[in-house]
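User: I'm new to structure prediction. If I give you an amino acid sequence, what do you actually give back? Let's try with this one:
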Amino acid sequence: MQKRKYTSLLFFLAVFFITSSCGKYEDGPTFSLLSKKSRIANTWKIDKVFIDDVDRTSIYTEYMKTYKLELTKDGTISETTTTTLGTATVKGTWALTSSDENLVFTMPGLNIINKILKLKSGEMWLQKTDGGHIEVTHYITY
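Assistant: Good question. You get back a string of structure tokens that encode the predicted 3D arrangement of the chain. For your 142 residues, that looks like this:
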């Protein structure tokens, strides 16, 4: 009986250390029961924006009254932005590429490749290069 306890404990510890070192994304999560598609498919808003590691969130919040990014399980995207000039909605598609490490948004005239840094059910961090600058956007669900 004692040997079985130790074997179970060792098995649990081995699984824990193997899964904790095999996280797909730099900032987590290490493990999730939800599929990547299920975690991505949501309605998102911007929480923080960093450009070259400098917090630039205030620039976005001053310009945009509202921002909504809707990603559906069937791969469609709808991005709605409201500014002092009015409201604009852009539609397109999204797909996971590069062994699910990148989230690509395809919209009229745009093909944006985002590296996924973090993907939880209510939180997503995406990194893209724009004009030679590295932009990291933290999204949270509505």
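You can read the tokens as a compact description of the fold. Here is one thing that stands out. The helical segments are 2-20, 36-40, 57-63.
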